[in-house]
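Researcher: Hi, I'm a grad student and pretty new to this. My advisor asked me to get structures for two proteins we've been looking at. I'm not sure of the right format, so I'll just paste the first sequence and hope you can take it from there.
Model: That works fine. Here's the first sequence with its structure tokens right after it:
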Amino acid sequence: MKIRKFVFVLGGFALAVVMILGATLPVFAADFANITITANPLFLSITNTPNTWTMNGLVNGKAVRIDTVYYSNPLGDTTAPATVNDSSCRFTVTCSTNATTCDLTVNVGNFSGGGLVMTNSNDGSNGATTFGAYSWYSGMTYSNKVIAKDTGSTAMYTTGLAADATLKWGMEIETRTDAVTAGGVSTSIATITATEH
């Protein structure tokens, strides 16, 4: 520590002022500790089998008729499931996720190509050029089936399917009411989506 003294004379009195300049303090080396941060991402993944449904294909490959309801029902796709159980559900979805459960939503897109071109009515009803669609799952009351819209459907399964669990489910389509004037296969894409419960 360096000290310098200055003497000022004020009104005949001597005043000593002590100033500390360039003070030197002890220097310590820097120290640190590392913190490891881990993040395990939440993921949702589902698989569905089978990934195809030929409407009326379960009944000797017959053609699809207008103004008729078809069910993805292994017991016969022109027969509504009396009780929605595993045997009346064509599809099986498996949820692969970690530390969470998932809800399931089904959307059914418009039919294009071939002669049975139809647009989803988005309200479950059919009409001229429109079809209605619903989805349901094993264990639910059939009358509580959920409208399957082109997009933005309400979730079909809302109780949270657990990781590695499976769920049997099905859907139905009521074809348009007006006449079909051409043959050929029409197709639609149904999408089942998992969201965090």
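Researcher: Oh nice, that was easy. Here's the second one.
Model: And its structure:
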Amino acid sequence: MTRRGHRTAWIVVHENGPGKGGHGHLLLHVPAGLVAALTGKQRAILKHITGSTYRARVIHSRPVGGKLAVERTAPGLHAANLANALHYIIKGAEDDAPAVHMDLMHKL
């Protein structure tokens, strides 16, 4: 995204627990015009990061709010879903962490 002149914003969380073992969550802001290009590169990016070949069902990627451009067509729905996604990935963090991160996300 930086090579194409866009700022990046993301939150990444690594978890390790019973049942799922080690895994991570990434909440990433992708400008609408870059969604198709980035989606097509997810497997290559994962391989670059991990050094491992892609395994089925490893990547679960979907837009916040369930569809692209919902931040423009239904901003209230997008805000509610963004808050839910944020609370999910930072579960176990300090109580004020969601407010701090939501403030940062809205400044983008």
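Researcher: Is there anything I should tell my advisor about the second?
Model: You could mention this: The chain is about 40% helix and 15% strand.
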